[in-house]
Design a protein that fits this description.
The protein is built from nine helices and 15 strands. With about 350 residues, it is of the alpha+beta class. It has two domains: about 190 residues, Fructose-1,6-Bisphosphatase, subunit A, domain 1 (Fructose-1,6-Bisphosphatase, Chain A, domain 1), CATH 3.30.540.10; about 150 residues, D-Maltodextrin-Binding Protein, domain 2 (3-Layer(aba) Sandwich). Strands 4-3-5-6-7-8-9-10 form an eight-stranded mixed β-sheet, sandwiched between helices. The chain has a five-stranded mixed β-sheet with strand order 12-11-13-15-14, sandwiched between helices. β9 and β10 form a beta hairpin. α5 packs across α8. The structure holds 1,6-di-O-phosphono-beta-D-fructofuranose and magnesium ion (MG) (2 copies). Its EC number is 3.1.3.11. Pfam families: FBPase, FBPase_C.
């Protein structure tokens, strides 16, 4: 059993960017340990000061809670102590310029699942590590407009019954568990998302706002063994993407947050650069897939740090099945020509 430090050192080849990535992830792991201690010593308690709304909307338009801000502060400090030139956070309108000349940019959702903070349900942190090129130094506006394929590393922490880290450096996806006694993350092994899903995750309270293909896809799952899918599906929705993602990485399933007809939800709720891309990179590296419903999520060129995107990720066969319904809902028995030409997740 190796520690996170040993794993990172083994991957830090002569390439200075790999060493820089390792240094940053070490700092993030320390910050996550601090945040876990803060959460488990009262920040999620019913009367804790850190549970109340702080009142202001963040860059994505959501109301910030105190813990959102505290998480942002901790991870900003972690980035400042690492080779990070640009820090792009859900909790800040604009990217923050840190260490000039450093090789990395980091996009982050410091606290994912904020609606669950006061309910003692798992929450998390999602991060995406990108390269900084000379072109970005001349004009920083493009640094967070790199497609997800450009990511050097990505991952997410889950503050749950156990603090977990799921991370990819582009060579598989690995899970690490944290010990509160030692503050050390220990490797638990590679994650391989089962290709076949038995569970779907979608906020079904929005069913009346869904577009036809989404309704059809879910209906076909719900028909179970008697229906066209020929098997039963269970449903899970934690409303913390990190918690839904971790479960899916461990036992398969599909997570769906598409656009719908609610005002402001035409591209759903999930942010491309610091939510969908890092989870999508981890999913692909774990043998799964991630799309915006049709195209691989990692191929999308973002139009800005806070862009929203429809997202579907998890078991590869199920992500492809969802795309098949999206692409051509009227001919559900034929293989979509779209996927004949351009498979999802490199299938
Ligand atoms: O409340 P809804 O619409 O079900 O959305 C839940 C989704 O929104 C998110 O909470 C968005 O993340 P934030 O808490 O960082 O805004 C996801 O984690 C989760 O899956
Ligand atoms: Mg989030
Ligand atoms: Mg958040």
């Amino acid at each position: 059993m190796s520690t996170l430090t040993q794993y990172l050192e083994a991957h830090a080849a002569a390439d200075p960017r790999q060493r820089d990535v390792a240094a940053l992830i070490e700092r993030l792991a320390e910050a996550a340990g601090s945040l876990q201690r803060l959460i488990s010593t009262g920040a999620t308690g019913d009367a804790g000061a850190a549970t109340g709304p702080a009142g202001d909307p963040n860059g994505g338009g959501d109301i910030q809670k105190v813990l959102d801000r505290e998480a942002d502060r901790l991870f900003l400090e972690a980035a400042r102590a690492a080779p990070v030139a640009f820090y792009g956070s859900e909790e800040q309108d604009e990217a923050v310029v840190l260490n000039e000349g450093a090789s990395l940019a980091m996009a982050i959702d410091p606290l994912d699942g904020s609606s669950n903070i006061e309910t003692n349900v798992s929450i998390g942190t999602i991060f995406s590590i990108l390269p900084v090129t000379d072109a970005h130094r001349a004009d920083a506006s493009g640094v967070f407009r790199q497609p997800g394929r450009a990511q050097l590393a990505a991952g997410f922490f889950v503050y749950g019954p156990r603090l977990m880290l799921v991370v990819t450096l582009g060579a598989g996806t690995h899970a690490f568990g944290w010990s509160p006694e030692t503050g050390v993350f220990t490797r638990m092994g590679p994650l391989n998302i089962p290709a076949v899903a038995k569970e779907y995750s979608i906020n079904a309270s929005n069913a009346r706002h869904w577009d036809e293909p989404v309704r059809l896809y879910i209906e076909r799952c719900q028909e179970g063994v008697e229906g066209p899918r020929g098997r039963d599906f269970n449903m899970r929705w934690v409303a913390s993407m990190v918690a839904d993602a971790y479960r899916i990485f461990v036992r398969g399933g599909i997570y769906i947050y598409t656009g719908d007809r609610r005002k402001g939800y035409d591209r759903g709720r999930i942010r491309l650069v610091y939510e969908a891309n890092p989870v999508g990179f981890c999913a692909e590296q774990a043998g799964g897939a991630a799309s915006d419903g049709l195209q691989p999520i990692l191929d999308i060129v973002p139009d800005g740090l806070h862009q929203r995107t429809p997202v579907v990720f998890g078991s590869r066969e199920e992500v492809v099945e969802f795309a098949r319904v999206m692409a051509d809902p009227s001919s559900l028995t034929e293989t979509s020509s779209l996927f004949g030409q351009r498979p999802i997740g490199g299938i």
